[in-house]
Design goal:
The complex is a heterodimer of chains A (106) and B (413). Chain A is an alpha+beta fold. Chain A has three helices and five strands. Helices cover 19% and strands 20% of the residues of chain A. The radius of gyration of chain A is 12 Å and the shape is globular. Chain A starts with a strand and ends in a 6-residue tail after the last strand. Chain B is α/β, with parallel strands linked by helices and 413 residues long. In chain B, a hairpin with a 2-residue loop joins strand 22 and strand 23. In chain B, helix 1 packs parallel to helix 8 and helix 9 runs parallel beside helix 11. The radius of gyration of chain B is 22 Å and the shape is globular. The two termini of chain B are 38 Å apart. The chains are: A alpha+beta (106), B alpha/beta (413). The structure holds flavin-adenine dinucleotide (FAD) and FE2/S2 (inorganic) cluster.
């Protein structure tokens, strides 16, 4: 099972064993990772699951689709490596993925 | 009243609002006992997918739950499932359970949600007549969602139309009956109504507006036909009722708490009893950006009030209020709604209706009060900001797609 590490804005790391096919958001929710609220349950409608993806994984994670990109255009504190974690599916390729949650979501 | 030293909090109803209240109480540092009493067999789960991906069979059941069972144990939340609360005894500060026994409380959060309005016609109790509110409803409906089956949906609201889309995609023959002259009449404008009527017809749904159901006809207790008030009979293997909901206010009413088509609460989700809060579909609340009160039926509202109640109990500052929002998925069309359009005096359409990518903005006295955004996330999000700030934006500007929503929002800020 791939491991994903969630990092707080203040640097606290939480490595979590994730299930293939679930999203990075769902993995966080199930494991009570703070900083990811996911109010809309993954419908790409709320942007409360915003994360920063570790630069070294940007290629593997891929590009956001149009809906997600538009949501990101209006989210707070967006950077080039911003993604909505409900739109990233866990797979073996993402083993070792590191994502940081924005301070505004805490 | 300071409740931050409460020892026993009882949450009645394990849905979206109840689950949020429990999470927020722990998040805000509450250390006493929490008992979550819910009359469904399942731990709290999301309802929106029930008429969308889950109904279609594209989402596994375990992905519906807000939290796994272990979370409740780890956070010392006692869950009493398949248990109904039958009474709130305010004099003795006790919640009485249907199966006997009681729970003492220092504070209560009523999160009893709502229930589908039953079809007010003869034959509503026939076999294969369904409603759609919970997991157990989908359990009954799903085995019948087979290609070729004839489904009649009563009520062209969001849930009815979403179910129609799923059923068509699974190959059922679908008829939608709507009493009003247009679909979604209660919740949106004619522009959006016609869009959805056309969309469903394009996908082969027989959408009948102005068609009132007269009765349901069956043979040997099993449904065979939906009969219109006009006398016309439509063959049906199953009927799905989607004619609105009734808020579950009976516990509150019986306890003497003021209700008016919902349990009346203040800005902090508090009822007239300082120890009793209410959150979600069952409440009538002040609508922050609209200077009136109202009852909302949405995930946004359930979450917000769950948080408000927890914050008030713990004496925390009131969490920031969001502008109401909602969404609906039908076929490959995503509708995102921000704000409340009731009472608008002007509609501005931006984008291309034919291309199924457009937004309808609703204004009142020049101010933007709501948007229905179809496959148009920037219009949705930018409008949330504009609505909350009470901005006035020129209609020509809103309609002009050469000016981005980002620019419009920035200019109004
Ligand atoms: C099929 C469907 C699709 C939807 N889609 C969307 C959508 O796309 N977007 C959106 O924003 N909203 C949507 N909604 C609405 C949203 O799900 C509700 O607004 C939300 O669930 C309300 O949360 P709640 O906690 O108030 O009520 P509920 O989630 O209904 O929870 C209330 C719970 O309390 C229980 N209960 C009631 N009385 C008692 C009692 N006396 N004792 C014990 N337990 C009791 C009920 O059985 C229920 O489990 C949808 C709803 C449905 C049914
Ligand atoms: S959970 Fe709402 S956008 Fe990701």
């Amino acid at each position: 099972m791939p491991t994903i590490t969630y990092i707080d804005h203040d640097g606290t790391e939480r490595p979590i064993e994730a299930k293939n096919g679930e999203t990075v958001m769902e993995t966080a929710i199930k494991n009570s990772v703070p900083g990811i609220d996911a109010d809309c349950g993954g419908a790409c409608a709320c942007a409360t699951c915003h994360v920063y993806v570790d630069e070294s994984f940007m290629d593997k994670v891929g590009q956001p689709e149009e809906m997600e990109q538009s949501m990101l255009d209006f989210a707070e504190n967006v950077q080039a490596n911003s993604r909505l974690s409900c739109q990233i599916q866990v797979s073996d390729d993402l083993d070792g993925l590191r994502v940081t949650t924005p301070e505004s979501q805490h | 009243m300071d409740l931050s030293t409460a020892k026993n909090i009882v949450v009645i109803g394990g849905g979206q609002a109840g689950a949020q209240a429990v999470q927020s109480l722990r998040q805000f540092g509450y250390e006493g006992a929490i008992t979550l009493v819910g009359d469904e067999a399942a731990l709290p789960y999301q309802r929106p997918p029930l008429s969308k991906a889950y109904m279609k069979g594209e989402l596994a059941e375990d992905r519906l739950y807000f939290k796994p069972a272990a979370w409740y144990e780890d956070n010392k939340v006692e869950t009493l499932l398949s248990q109904r609360v039958k009474k709130i005894d305010r004099a003795n500060r006790q919640v009485l359970l249907q199966h006997g026994g009681h729970l003492d409380y220092d504070a209560v959060i009523i999160a009893t949600g709502s229930r589908p309005r039953p079809l007010p016609v003869e034959g509503a109790d026939l076999e294969n007549v369904f409603e759609l509110r919970g997991l157990s409803d989908v359990e009954h409906i799903q085995p019948k969602m087979i290609s070729g089956q004839k489904l009649v949906i009563v009520g062209a609201g969001y849930i009815g139309l979403e179910a129609a889309a799923v059923a068509r995609q699974l190959g059922l023959e679908v008829t939608v009956l709507e009493m009003e002259q247009r679909a979604l009449a209660r919740v949106t404008s004619p522009v959006i109504s016609s869009f959805y009527e056309a969309l469903h017809m394009e996908h082969g749904v027989d959408v009948r507006c102005g068609a009132r159901l007269g009765s349901l006809k069956g043979k040997d207790g099993k449904l065979t036909h939906a009969v219109l008030a006009s006398g016309e009979e439509i063959e049906a293997d199953m009927v799905l009722a989607g004619i609105g909901i009734i808020p579950n206010v009976e516990l509150a009413e019986d306890a003497g708490l003021p209700c008016k088509n919902g349990i009346i609460v203040d800005e902090d989700a508090r009822t007239s009893d300082p120890r009793i809060f209410a959150a979600g579909d069952c409440t009538v609340r002040p609508l922050a950006h609209y200077a009136r009160t109202g009852r909302l039926e949405s995930v946004h509202n359930a979450i917000e009030q769950g948080k408000l109640a927890a914050a008030a109990i713990m004496g925390k500052p009131r969490p920031a209020l969001d502008c109401p929002w909602f969404w609906s998925d039908q076929y490959n069309i995503k509708l995102q709604i921000a704000g409340l359009s009731q009472g608008y005096d002007e509609i501005v359409v931006r984008g291309d209706v034919e291309a199924k990518k457009f937004a309808a903005f609703y204004k009142k006295n020049g101010r933007l009060i709501a948007v229905d955004a179809i496959n148009s996330p920037p219009e949705f999000i930018a409008s949330k900001r504009l609505i909350m700030s009470g901005a006035s934006v020129a209609s020509e500007t809103l309609a002009d797609t050469s000016i981005s929503m980002k620019e419009i929002a920035a200019a109004a800020a």
